[in-house]
């Protein structure tokens, strides 16, 4: 898997200001609005270090956490994981031992797939392992966010144990609004700083295209709303929640 090697080592430090409980609560509200089950099997797709998996398990789901990075999953296993099974798989080659009642793919993980073919393959695999009546929800960064917020900008994170520089390059000619991300980490180790680096890439297809791809897979009741706030999408929306259902 591209990236997420040294990044996985520092992921939880960089995400320490993320309110995972707010995110889990938001997803659960949307799951219930879609008529999704309040228990049963929940697939946490691209689960990363398992922070959301833990919260979904606490809410009563039997969680299957899937991620393509064994480094991320190693960190997840260091957290409480009652009622959670972790599998190291890519989204495009998802192969579950059970069927899911709910699938969640959070924190713009769909954007990290390399192209439309990979997104389509991931959607098809989710369809394959979703029970009739099951729901699929995920959040995505929009083309607006890639052009106007991430773009060619740089971001600096300064913590006691870590200093990180995140530099972006927007591919102006890529119709999928691709942003390449170059990360340099300086971690404090035994009084000195050691440098690590990683590379990530994100694409941001138009939300309308994403919804059409879901429809082609057979999903229905497809909708989009603003992430966390839940407002109707608009031209300056930087992040959306997409929800869909497999018909009963």
Q: What is this structure's SSE topology?
A:
Blueprint lengths: L5 H9 L5 H14 L7 E5 L5 H8 L3 E6 L2 H7 L7 E5 L11 E6 L10 H13 L1 E12 L1 H8 L3 E5 L3 E9 L8 E11 L2 E11 L4 H11 L2 E7 L12 E7 L3
Parallel strand pairs: 1-2, 1-4, 2-3, 4-5
Antiparallel strand pairs: 5-11, 6-7, 7-8, 8-9, 10-11
Helix pairs in contact: 2-3
N-C termini distance: 35 Å
Main beta-sheet annotation: 7 strands, mixed
Quaternary assembly: single chain
Mean residue pLDDT:
96
Shape: globular
Structural class label: alpha/beta
Strand content: 25-35%
Q: How large is the radius of gyration?
A: 18 Å
Question: What is the strand tally?
Answer: 11
Unreliable spans are: none
Helix content range of the residues, please? Answer: 25-40%
Number of discrete helical segments = 7
Order of helices and strands: HHEHEHEEHEHEEEEHEE
Strand order of the largest sheet: 3-2-1-4-5-11-10
Brief overview, please?
By secondary structure, this protein is of the alpha/beta class.
Main features:
seven-stranded mixed β-sheet; four-stranded antiparallel β-sheet; single chain; 7 helices; 248 residues; globular; alpha/beta
